[in-house]
Amino acid sequence: MTRLLRPACAAGALTLLLAGCQLFPSGGPGQHTIRAGTALTVPVSQAYGGTWTVSNLPAWANVSRPSGSGDIVFTLTVNRGAGVPVNATATGLAGTLSVSWKGRDGRSGVTKWPITALNYRLTGQITSSATVQGTQVQMRSTAPMTTTPAARGVIVTYRDGTIQAKSHGGVSAERALNTLRAGGIAVRRAEPLGARSALLRVAATDRAIAALKADPQVLSVTENAVMRPQATLAAPVVPTDQFAPLQWTYRMLGYPAVWRDMATTPYTRPVTVAVIDSGVRYDHPDLQGRLWRSGEGALDVLDAQVDAQGTGNGDGDGPDTDPTDPRTPGRTLGSHGTHVTGIIAARWGDNGATPDCATCSTTGVIGATNTSNVKVLPIRAIDADGNTDVAQVAVSVRYAAGLPVVLGGKTYTSPHAAQVINLSLGGEISAATAKPMCDAVADAVAAGSLVIVAAGNGYGETPYYPAACDGAVAVAAVTLSGASAPRRATYSNAYTQVQLAAPGGTDYFQNPTYYNGATWDPQGDGSPEPFVDSVLSTGWDYVKNLPNYEVESGTSQATPQVSALAALLISKGVTTGAAATLERLKATATDLGPGGRDSATGFGMINAAAALGAPAISDTLGLRLQDDRGRAFQPPLDAMGRFTAYVGEGTFRVIAGRDRDGNGVYGEVSEPRRERQAILGPDATTADVGELTPQ
């Protein structure tokens, strides 16, 4: 505990005063080192007579009282998990805080106080003979699948055909038998393997092999080794579209394995995904042939409102069957609906873009649904300013489900009722205000649609609607962490109605990350840069009025990935109906954070490879370490598979597993795994989880 210090020195004892009591001619507080050790909280106090403010704390520390006058007194709380690096190799944390002060004499300044804290120690070992995170390791193994059985005898081959194995009745190789028996070596029997070879059922000891090799007529003696059938790994499908290497989210969900499955297994059942959004750009080359068009169910539900600038909702012609996201005077923002649609259905390969299109690519990006029989039904409910309302969303949901709606005195009924409805929209409104939307969601569910909705980007725990409606599937966003497990995106709302999560990308503006490993050359000058962990998809340049490709992050980008996988489950015939599809999505999700469902990621991140039963495309062994706050760490493994992680307080899930879908996440559903739990804190500063062998 840090004590309150007060000067108590005689005025004449100048030497003692300077050495022991710290005079501060400036009038500010003196130097103070706060050593937390293994504690979570530390009381701090120092005598002072002026005003003070504590600021510039490291991310892993906060104080109970950030300012005051008189003695500096506060409690420092250490949140180690926020300061532990991804590799968890730092034994402790070190930083400083600033004390800004103003003395009674009017003088002021800033004093920096060092802060230190010790991390907690977690150890264990992964045992198996396998490739671990790219390094071949030799480890002792208790796993039956890696145990090498004893040889089943020895095979002897002679130099010429004079030593024949008798084939009538019993089998023998008399010379070999006599050789072993003469050496006092018992042989159960000998069996012919051809004119010059025989199998001797004898223990493959050095003594038996040496006795046979001593015969000058013997050409070779080998063990009769036991072999096992080896699993054949399928080759992942790697798209060749220009910007596909930047679309890391598909790799995270195991789509290279899914697309291999799609190449050999028909995904032929027709599925419609309704995208209720800002409309779409039908003229984007990457969306050609992937959308229902005017006369096929596409709809714009917006009224013909016109503002003082003559723009209003963008097209000014009221409800109709053209949901094109329009160009309006001064519009610069891209097309949200086009971006969402591309995540689901952007076409692969040559898209037919003409050379005179300056912002076009002849191949562009890819969508999840690839060659499957999935099409998007665009429904325009968000205007050119990015706004919609409760009534417009309610009408759109009912229409998407195939129910009749009345707009401008005219009845509209979609000829393609959507099995999956995507809503990458929402707002912080009350349940009472949202009731008309929730009633529409209930009607859509009753009609057989699966309604999938963005959980919201509010950085908090407030439910957003319509995601929080009964019957809706609220989708949170995760992003790359630098470890083998992704983490909840900081902007993604967490509340009890959240059911699933999918990659939504990094917080591009506040804390961008670059873990995906891809690079790009934005200037085209041969100077590649790391590509941010955001979601790349189809877009529109409203300044040039030309197609482009845009990077966005949010639960809006996570939601269409869930919608795409739901559509593929139905198209392949893995599931039929909304309820069964949702259960499959939940049952195969990768659980993140604390075990079981939680408010941050629901049942976990969707796993396309597991959900669709895709073939294995990899088989590596590794460690997944997660805490109960959804943070992920990746301590290094030594040559024996042992690890030591220095982490913060909390409950930790230690998962040893294999990665069969090539996404670098070990021990997901349908993959071999072994899991143990450890609880660390001031009362338990070390833990050893022992050996973990995935099975």
Number of helices: 11
Class inferred from helices and paired strands: alpha+beta
Main β-sheet description: 8 strands, mixed
Strand content: 25-35%
What is the 3D shape?
flat
Spans with pLDDT under 50 lasting ≥5 residues? 1-26, 129-147, 162-172
Please report the distance between the alpha carbons of the first and last residues. Answer: 48 Å
| Structural domain count | 4
Kindly state the percentage of residues in helix.
10-25%
CA-atom Rg in angstroms: 34 Å
Tell me which CATH architecture of the largest domain applies here.
Answer: 3-Layer(aba) Sandwich
CATH class of the largest domain, anyone?
A: Alpha Beta
Summarize the structure.
This protein is of the alpha+beta class. The protein is 15% helix and 26% strand. It folds into four domains: 14-118, Sandwich (Immunoglobulin-like); 123-146 and 616-692, no CATH class; 154-223, 2-Layer Sandwich (Alpha-Beta Plaits), CATH 3.30.70; 244-587, Rossmann fold, CATH 3.40.50.
Structure description:
The protein has 11 helices and 35 strands. Strands 16, 17, 18, 21, 22, 23, 24 and 25 form an 8-stranded mixed beta sheet that branches. The protein has a 5-stranded mixed beta sheet with strand order 1-8-7-3-5, with no helix packed on it. With 695 residues, it is an alpha+beta fold. It has 4 domains: 14-118, Immunoglobulin-like; 123-146 and 616-692, no CATH class; 154-223, 2-Layer Sandwich (Alpha-Beta Plaits), CATH 3.30.70; 244-587, 3-Layer(aba) Sandwich (Rossmann fold). α6 (336-345) packs parallel to α9, α7 (390-400) runs parallel beside α8 and α9 (555-572) packs across α10.
